Structure formats: structure tokens, C-alpha cells
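queue> pop job 88
queue> type: inverse folding (structure -> sequence)
queue> payload:
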């Protein structure tokens, strides 16, 4: 919905900093931009993307008349009416029907009950009566929030780039995050690729003393759940999804759907049409690579036609990638080595002529064990010792199918390490893994721990990061109904033995079959990304661009590439196709670092 910024700084440069930051995040909220000075050292600013209630009340920053309370926030609230009713019972009189006013009044009256909010959000809430700032990010991690702190100076923003350009932060490449990036395709957890700039973790709250600059961290308290676990057969998943879809579709602007033709997005469309019979604009990427198996757009087109939707096919080619790469990198807030970012950005560019909000199927695979690695890990968990013995011999065979080679080379003594390797581009070194697993030390080894990794690391740092960045770069809000609080709670209640026995995304596949689309549930799962390896083999202009960016990066950082990349560059690690993910990963990082002169 918006971009948010805050500066707490005594001395010259504070007003210039908030001005620069608001300008830097203007694409996140092209409909309104403003900032306020609330004290001699406190400044807040925001940019607004109008999605609900076009009235001026929600223009940021939102303050009481005496400026005792002030709010800038980013996101959407999906249980607005429930919260509004509680506030009315508490005596609140409303001036608008916006979720902004509901959130503002909720934080004034019930700052300890943030966990009751169903939505995606990050916010900065100023309480001048207590001289504090409450800064928070929702537990699902859909909306980013970054901060820089030096002494009693704090700089906070929706985007890393805004802090980098504020003039108050030192901008240096975070050398300590290069290794995590090389293996995971992103910086680790609360870190970023810029030294000293951190990100607030999902579900974290930061309470900041505006006098001293001292901070304390806490977790958003979750709402108590009615049951510890629930059997899959006892869930009414279609009803829950239908309710979530209706909540996420509520808006005063046109809403479209990112329709890949796979299970997740197809079920969203089927659920919506069953409830409303209102056709949507749908957006699907195609690559002109049908012979290589890239046929998602055909299934999407067929489904859209059945439901009388306005289907938009977004054609992406190697030529487009080369031509628009500089612009894409200029929009990239933080590097993530996932080509879904470029695909999503192309879709957003095409969609903004018709839609201001895009619905996606993000989160379904992580919640309901839909990735191929989940099925591979289930196989491994049936007999880890046996698979370890087989892998010790099998990994040395040079002509194994890629999937089997990945499986064998992932297996380690620790079952959790084995799964992390399955998610990574290459087997993660033990020293690096030791650092990763500290955040999961309290969880018992097993399938639930593996899903926790995908839900808390991969989903947040990769999927949601590229989704938010790509769409907000074009002034479009992205929403993910599968991450609705009620669906997340339901998924968390599925016991491990049910997850181990059920087929991939079983509740979704069954719901799709019931909706009359069994053929979609039976299709082989394709990743949401570019055919980069094939394009590298075919297009000389793309090879030149990739080599130029990587060599420019290597000239400045000659000792930073890991052995896998050095071997690939020297031609010792096979063809481009088998190393496409590795190459794309370093291509993104190199281009981003080159653009920012890091």
C-alpha cells in the first residue's frame, strides 16, 4: 500500500534525509507523499498507494490534532470490520471507512493486542505522550522494514535503498553476507547486503525511546488457538480459502490475478468465481519455449477462458531480458537470486494498465508441502541411514539425472542439514550451517523443522521479497490469500504424521478437483522462473551482458567468489544449462553491486 520512513537524528541532515527517503520510496505510493517534523530530531514520512477509501484521511502521516499520536504504515488489514466494531464498542467515532483509521485507533487503544490484526503490514507508530516509537512487521513477513542505527541516530524505511540514499548511513557491501547469498540466494534472516542496515524479522516489534535512542525488541503475541492439531480430513479448507479470497479481494480499485496455470493460482480463481461469478483480469508469463515444456500459459489461458476472464499473456524473451535488465536492476531493492523477480516485474508492468492490486498464490507450497524437495525429504526420512550409505556411493557417479544427483549430494549426517542442502544451490558448508541452525535449535529434527525453514527463511527472504519488490516497483499492491491468518493457523495445526503421509498440497489438489479441474492437480510442477539456461546457450547478447556484469564485480572483489563459481567461470563445471541457477544468482548480485558501486 505505501512506503514508510522515519529519521531520529540530532543535527544537520535530518530534514534532507527524510525528503530524500520519501522521494526514494515514491514508487511504493504514487498517489500521495508527505512528511512531518514531530520534534527537533524526529521526522516521519510516507507515500500512499490508494486501494481502499480514496478519501484524504488516509494520506500519510496520520496524526491526532495535537500530534500526540502519529502513524505511517504499509499494507492492508483484512479483518477491518471486526476491529472497527470493537473500537466502536470502546467509544471510538470514525471519520472514514479506511483500514488506516482502524489501525491507527487500534494502536492508540490496544497497542498490546497487535496479534489480533489479520493482515500484512509494517508500521511506525509514534506515541509522544510516552515519547516512544513502536515499529513492527507482521508475522507473515509480507511487508519489509529496514533500519540503521548508529549511537542515538535511527533511520527506518520500507526499502533498503531509501536508507542507503538518506545521507545518514554508511554504505558498504556486507562481506559477511556474501557466503549466505551464494548458497541461499539471499542475505540471512535479519541481515542485508549492506553492512549496518538490518531488517526487522516477521512478527518482531521494536520499541524505541525517542529521547535516548535506546531500543528493546519483543514478539507480537499471537491470538490463542482453539486446538493444538487437527486432522486434514476434518478441515473445511475450501470454505476457509473462499473466506480468505473474499477478504483479500476487498478494495476500491481494480484487482487482478497472477495466473500461472498451476494448482495454487488456479484454485484462487476457481474459488473466487464460485462465490461471485465476477470475471477478473488475469496475467500469465510466457517464454516461447513450449517445446522445452514451458506451457503454463496454455493452461492459464484455458482456465481464464472458461471463467470469461480477460486473460493477458505477458511475453518475455531473452531480448527483453537484455534490453530491460538495467532498468530492472535500478528497481531492485536488495538482491535475491531468483528469476521469479524479473518475471513478476514484467507482469506488474503489463498489469498496471488494468489493475492496482494483484493476487498471487504465494505461500501455498510452504504451508502445504508442495515442493519436490518436500517429497524427496519424506523419502529420505523413511530411512536416513540407508540413504546416507547409498548417497556415499551414488554421488560419485557423473551421469546421474540432475534430481537424483541433487538428492545424493544433499545428504549429510544431520537430517536438517540434509534438507537445508536440498533448498540451497550447493551443499552448505558445515560452518555456515552451524550459524543457520541456531535459529532453529529449539525445534525437534523432522519434517516440521524442514517446513519451518521454508516458511521462515525461503518464503520470507526469497518469495515474498521478490514479490513485494517487483510489484511495488510499478505501484501495484500484491496480496497473498494463502497467507491469511486463518489459513496459516490451519496449516500449522496439521500434525507431522499427516504431513508425511499426505500427497503434496493435498487440501488444494482436492479442492481443485472438487471445483472441476482435476487435470491441473495432476500436472508436473514447474517453477515460476525464466528459462535462463536455454537462453544463455542461444543468445550471444545475453552471454555478453552476463559476462560483463560478473567480470566487473570480480575486478572489485577478486577473492569473494566461492569455488563453485570460480570453477564454472573457468569452464570446469559443465555447461551453462546445468549451472543456470548458480550463474543467475551471481549475475543478479554482480549487477546490483555494480549499479550501487559496492
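queue> result:
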Amino acid at each position: 500500500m505505501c512506503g514508510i520512513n522515519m529519521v531520529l537524528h540530532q543535527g544537520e541532515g535530518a530534514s534532507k534525509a527524510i525528503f530524500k527517503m520519501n522521494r526514494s520510496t515514491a514508487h511504493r505510493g504514487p498517489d500521495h507523499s508527505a512528511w512531518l517534523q514531530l520534534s527537533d530530531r524526529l521526522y516521519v514520512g510516507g507515500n500512499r498507494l490508494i486501494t481502499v477509501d480514496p478519501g484524504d484521511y488516509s494520506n500519510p502521516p496520520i496524526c491526532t490534532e495535537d500530534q500526540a499520536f502519529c502513524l505511517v504504515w504499509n499494507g492492508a488489514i483484512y479483518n477491518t470490520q471486526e476491529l472497527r466494531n470493537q473500537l466502536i464498542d470502546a467509544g471510538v467515532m470514525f471519520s472514514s471507512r479506511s483500514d488506516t483509521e482502524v489501525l491507527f485507533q487500534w494502536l492508540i487503544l490496544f497497542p498490546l493486542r497487535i496479534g489480533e490484526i489479520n493482515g500484512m503490514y509494517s508500521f511506525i507508530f509514534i506515541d509522544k505522550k510516552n515519547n516512544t516509537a513502536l515499529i513492527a512487521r507482521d508475522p507473515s513477513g509480507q511487508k519489509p522494514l529496514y533500519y540503521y542505527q548508529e549511537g542515538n541516530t535511527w533511520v527506518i524505511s520500507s526499502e533498503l535503498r531509501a536508507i542507503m540514499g538518506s545521507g545518514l548511513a554508511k554504505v558498504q557491501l556486507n562481506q559477511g553476507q556474501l557466503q549466505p547469498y551464494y548458497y541461499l540466494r539471499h542475505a540471512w534472516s535479519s541481515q542485508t547486503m549492506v553492512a549496518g542496515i538490518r531488517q526487522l524479522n516477521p512478527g518482531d516489534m521494536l520499541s524505541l525511546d525517542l529521547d535516548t535512542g535506546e531500543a528493546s525488541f519483543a514478539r507480537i503475541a499471537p491470538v490463542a488457538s482453539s486446538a493444538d492439531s487437527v486432522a486434514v480430513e476434518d478441515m473445511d479448507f475450501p470454505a476457509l480459502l473462499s473466506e480468505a479470497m473474499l477478504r483479500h479481494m476487498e478494495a476500491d480499485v481494480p484487482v487482478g490475478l497472477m495466473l500461472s496455470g498451476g494448482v495454487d493460482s488456479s484454485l484462487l480463481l476457481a474459488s473466487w468465481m464460485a462465490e461471485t461469478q465476477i470475471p477478473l483480469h488475469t496475467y500469465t508469463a510466457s517464454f516461447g519455449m513450449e517445446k522445452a515444456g514451458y506451457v503454463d500459459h496454455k493452461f492459464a489461458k484455458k482456465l481464464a477462458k472458461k471463467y470469461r476472464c480477460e486473460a493477458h499473456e505477458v511475453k518475455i524473451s531473452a531480448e527483453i531480458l537484455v534490453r530491460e535488465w538495467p532498468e530492472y536492476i535500478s528497481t531492485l531493492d536488495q538482491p535475491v537470486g531468483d528469476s521469479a523477480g524479473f518475471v513478476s516485474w514484467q507482469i506488474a508492468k503489463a498489469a498496471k494498465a488494468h489493475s492496482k492490486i494483484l493476487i498471487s498464490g504465494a505461500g501455498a507450497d510452504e504451508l502445504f508441502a508442495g515442493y519436490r524437495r518436500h517429497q524427496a525429504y519424506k523419502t529420505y526420512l523413511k530411512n536416513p541411514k540407508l540413504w546416507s550409505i547409498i548417497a556415499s556411493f551414488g554421488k560419485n557417479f557423473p551421469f546421474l539425472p540432475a534430481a537424483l544427483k541433487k538428492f545424493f549430494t544433499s545428504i549429510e549426517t544431520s537430517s536438517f542439514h540434509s534438507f537445508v542442502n536440498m533448498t540451497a544451490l550447493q551443499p552448505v558448508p558445515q560452518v555456515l550451517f552451524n550459524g543457520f541452525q541456531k535459529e532453529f535449535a529449539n525445534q525437534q529434527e523432522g519434517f516440521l523443522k524442514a517446513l519451518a525453514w521454508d516458511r521462515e527463511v525461503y518464503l520470507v527472504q526469497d518469495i515474498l521479497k521478490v514479490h513485494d519488490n517487483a510489484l511495488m516497483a510499478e505501484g501495484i499492491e500484491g496480496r497473498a490469500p494463502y497467507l491469511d491468518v486463518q489459513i496459516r493457523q490451519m496449516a500449522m495445526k496439521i500434525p507431522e504424521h499427516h504431513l508425511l503421509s499426505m500427497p503434496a498440497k493435498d487440501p488444494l489438489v482436492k479442492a481443485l478437483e472438487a471445483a472441476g479441474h482435476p487435470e491441473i492437480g495432476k500436472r508436473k510442477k514447474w517453477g515460476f522462473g525464466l528459462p535462463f539456461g536455454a537462453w544463455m546457450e542461444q543468445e550471444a547478447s545475453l552471454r555478453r551482458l552476463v559476462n560483463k556484469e560478473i567480470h566487473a564485480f570480480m575486478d572489485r572483489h577478486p577473492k569473494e567468489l566461492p569455488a563453485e563459481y570460480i570453477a564454472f567461470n573457468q569452464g570446469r563445471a559443465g555447461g551453462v544449462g546445468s549451472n543456470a541457477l548458480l550463474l543467475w544468482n551471481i549475475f543478479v548480485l554482480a549487477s546490483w553491486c555494480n549499479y550501487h558501486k559496492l
